[in-house]
Each structure stands twice: as C-alpha cells, then as structure tokens.
User: Which sequence fits this backbone?
C-alpha cells in the first residue's frame, strides 16, 4: 500500500511534517509583510514635512514589548481647536515633558521631534483650552 516509505494515514511524524511544511512558509510570509510595513512606515514618516503647531501635552503613555526589551513612548497633543493626536516620541522628549505643558510642538508624520515650552505665547483664537 504505497511502499515502505509512504506515511500512514494518521502517522504522527508524517502529519507533523506535512503541517510544518505549511506553517513555516505562512509564518515567513507574515513576518515579511510585517517587516515591509514597518520599513514603509518609517520611510513615510522620514519623508513627511516637519510642521510646528502650538499645542498642550494632553497625555503620555508607554508601550512595553516583550520582557522590557523594547519600549515605545507616546505623547498626545491637544490643539487649540480641541483636536487631539498621539505621536511616537523618537527624540526622547517623554521624560522632559509633563502633562499640561504648553508650547510649540514640531511633528513629522507620526513622530514628535521637538517641543519648546511657551506658556505665555498661547494664541487666543477660537474655542478650546
């Protein structure tokens, strides 16, 4: 019935070999897609123009990946019109800013790249804080 090397219908080794021959390529494809998306996101942010707005630091948070091996820091800015947006801190500003700080924030894509405190320079136009 198939020769001496043909796997039996429910042979454990044959089943695992067949399963791994499907799982490994799928895992590689998923890894490749995630890697390409991460690189594309970094390229998009690096090419984005830098923009500066007057804003208030509304919130800060950190996201830890793995066993404290990788930590991402995020800063949420609130603008004069009441809109909020969260930015990834790529310039180590997280420890220098406190919620409630007001000033000029420079952003580039999804990154915050600079923040200069100017509480007295707050523009007075429209509703908001």
Assistant:
């Amino acid at each position: 019935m198939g020769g001496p090397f043909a796997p039996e219908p429910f042979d454990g080794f044959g089943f695992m070999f067949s399963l791994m021959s499907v799982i490994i390529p799928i895992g590689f494809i998923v890894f490749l897609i995630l890697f390409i998306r991460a690189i594309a996101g970094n390229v998009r942010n690096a090419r984005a123009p830098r923009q500066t707005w007057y804003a208030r630091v509304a919130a800060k948070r950190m996201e830890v990946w793995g066993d404290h091996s990788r930590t991402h820091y995020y800063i949420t800015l609130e603008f004069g019109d009441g809109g909020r947006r969260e930015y990834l801190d790529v310039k180590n500003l997280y420890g220098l800013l406190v919620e409630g700080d007001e000033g000029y924030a420079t952003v580039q894509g999804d990154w915050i790249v600079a923040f200069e405190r100017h509480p007295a320079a707050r523009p007075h136009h429209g509703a908001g804080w």
